[in-house]
Amino acid sequence: MDEKKAAILGEIPRLRRYARSLLRDRDAADDLVQDCLERALVRLDNWQTGESPRRWLFTIMHHLFIDQMRKVNRRGEAAMLPLEAGEAMAQPAEQVESIASREIIDALQAISPDRRAALVMVAIEGFSYAEAANILGVPAGTLMSRIARGREELRGLLDDTARRRAIRIVEK
Question: Which keywords does this Swiss-Prot/TrEMBL entry list (predicted)?
């Protein structure tokens, strides 16, 4: 039993990263991770010994996220929480890489949650298409479509951001 708990604890950084990519609010993401871990520990017998808990935990987290989004939609509340005061303040970047990273993160947050989840699962977390489709509970073709549309949407957002930055530079 201790081996299972230790393996689950080893996945917390990945769970946090995925939760923060789904939600803009750090506290809400931490709450999602906590709910996921709580559910996993209660249902520890459902996890097959010898397998990595990663796919199992991500499936639990995704289901909790979908449930949370459904509750928000039923209540009519905003799906995305506002940025924290510190995150909303503009600060000049000291390095070009920092600007590019921020633009990519902002663009990723701007696309739909379904497409963002698919992209994060495959591109960032390294799951195969089959594993990601299984975790998200969609057919592989749907997952591939979401990834393709998400990438296209990201390209459009990032091209627009680059154009706006170039215009600002010319105006100076």
Answer: Sigma factor, Transcription, Transcription regulation
Give which of 24, 30, 16 is closest to 106, Cα–Cα. Answer: 24
Cβ count near 150 (within 10 Å): 22
Q: Which amino acid is at 67?
A: D
pLDDT of residue 79: 45
Residue length of the chain? 172
Q: CA 159 → CA 67, 105, 166, distances in Å?
A: 34, 14, 11
- What separation in angstroms does the CA of 7 have from each of 11, 63, 76, 98, 171? 7, 21, 38, 33, 54
> Is 82 in a helix, a strand, or coil?
coil
Tokens of 23: 């939600």
> What tokens were used for 98?
């920092």
Residue 99: both structure tokens together = 């600007």
CB 81 within 8 A of CB 125: no
pLDDT digits (tens, 9 = 90+) for 40-99: 989 888 887 667 788 899 999 999 998 888 887 787 655 444 445 454 444 554 555 566
**Do 117 and 136 meet the contact criterion of CB atoms below 8 Å apart?**
yes
